Amino acid sequence: MGRVRAMLSWGFVRGPAATYAFLGSGSTLASFASVAAIALSAALGAAVGALVGVVTRNSVGDVAGVGALIGGGLLVAWLVLSLVVGAVLWVRGVSPAETATGEKPTGRHAAPSDGWRRRGEPLVPVSLVLFFALMTLAFGSLWVHARQVSQPWDDRLTATTNGTVVTVHEPAWWEKGSGSVDIRYSVAGADYVIETGRDPGEHVLAVGEVVPIQYVATGPADARCVWTVESARSDVTFWFWLSAGCAFLGLLSLIGFLGGRWRSSGRLGG
């Protein structure tokens, strides 16, 4: 019975805790090891599946693919279990390394210096509050930008014409995205050029591609790509709810942090 309990402990508590401690060590080896382990598990699953396919005279490729999914999925489930165990240990105030080894720290300087929460300390760290605040700011700025781009020109008379991509500007090495393009279009015999993003939604623009352009009838030089506007309109809702979700989680984190500081200061219960 003791062996069974030990095996269950390693399978559901100590083993996942050891995995969490290894992955949370910050070592580059841990990142490569996790990816390599998933790939190896998938390869073993594929090998077993191929063997089963040969024995049962089924399609070796199909069965091997199923085996690879099962093998990789099992290890991914193990990693998810390690995250759940890590969250429980955080709430309890016990470090994963301590749980994995089964050795409790003793002495005056027993408290670990790895930043793990100890009993009596605030449940929510201030770093989590700052993280959600930064995420809210980042996603909120994307929402504001998408909202501005998607605004209709109701106060101005507009028309639509076709333009042609004439130049592609590749992004610099420090820039993100796919760069920008110059689009030439004609209105009443006059040519105009606007610069817009190369990736307006699902379209990656190339030289010679025809693009719909919306322009102001009284000032054709004031124009924009129709695809960019449509993409921004579809992104507004996504960025809004993402930033609102981060703001909500940040508010909960702030409440948890302040509540923990209040409790740890001894103001509650005496």
Topology, element by element:
Elements lengths: L1 H22 L4 H29 L3 H33 L3 H6 L24 H25 L7 E12 L10 E8 L2 E8 L12 E7 L2 E7 H39 L6
Please supply descriptive tags for the structure shown above.
5 strands, 270 residues, alpha+beta, 57% helix
Describe this structure in words.
Helix content is 57%, strand content 16%. The chain is flat and about 90 Å long. It is α+β, with helices and mostly antiparallel strands and 270 residues long. The protein has a five-stranded antiparallel beta sheet.
**What is the number of helical segments per DSSP (H or I, 4+ residues)?**
6
How many distinct beta strands? 5
Q: What percent of residues adopt helix (DSSP H or I)?
A: 55-70%
Instruction: Compute the average pLDDT.
Output: 81
Largest sheet: 5 strands, antiparallel
- The strand line-up of the biggest sheet is 3-2-1-4-5
Distance between the termini: 46 Å
Computed CA radius of gyration, to the nearest angstrom: 28 Å
Helix/sheet category: alpha+beta
Query: Regions with pLDDT < 50 over 5+ consecutive residues?
Result: 107-113
Structural shape: flat
SSE string, helices as H and strands as E: HHHHHEEEEEH
Strand content: 15-25%
Concise summary:
The chain is 57% helix and 16% strand. It has 270 residues and is an alpha+beta fold. Helix 1 (2-23) crosses helix 3, helix 2 (28-56) packs antiparallel against helix 3 (60-92) and helix 5 (126-150) runs antiparallel to helix 6 (226-264).
